[in-house]
Amino acid sequence: MTGKRFLILAACANFAIALLHAVIPFMGVNGYIYFGTSELALLESQGSPVPEIATWFLALVFAGFGFYCLSGAGTIRRLPLLTPALWFIGGIYTLRGLILILDIAFPEWSDLSHAPAIFLGGRAGHRVDGAGGNKLEKVTLPCQTRVMI
Question: What share of the chain is helix, strand, coil (3-state, %, to 5)?
C-alpha cells in the first residue's frame, strides 16, 4: 500500500471519528456513558454545556485531521503548514497509542489517560464539593457501564 492510500485511509478514519463525535451530543447522557466518558455524562446530567462544547471541539479537530490527510495525499489543495501538521497529527496518534499500552500494562494508572476530563472537572468519576473545598466524593450514575469494543 502506498503512502497516498494510507493517508486516504487515515482521512476516512478521522472523518468517521469526527462524525461519531458530532452524533454523541444528540444521544445525551446515555451516549457519553456508552462511549466510556462517565465524567462528561455527569456534567451533562447536571446541565453543563462543557460536554457538548468539548465533544463538538473534538469533532472539528478530527475533521481537520482528515482534511490534512487528504491534502497530504494530494486529493485536495495543499493546506498551510502541511508537513509539520502531518508530523504533529502522527505524533498525537503515536502518544495516544503509547498511553493505551500503559493503560493495559498498568491499569491503576488509567486516570492518566483521562487528562482532558481531569482538566475539565477534577478526577474521573469524582467531583469536588461546590463550596470550594477539596473533599472528593465518589459519583456514580444510574446505568453506569463501560462498553469495550
Answer: 70, 5, 30
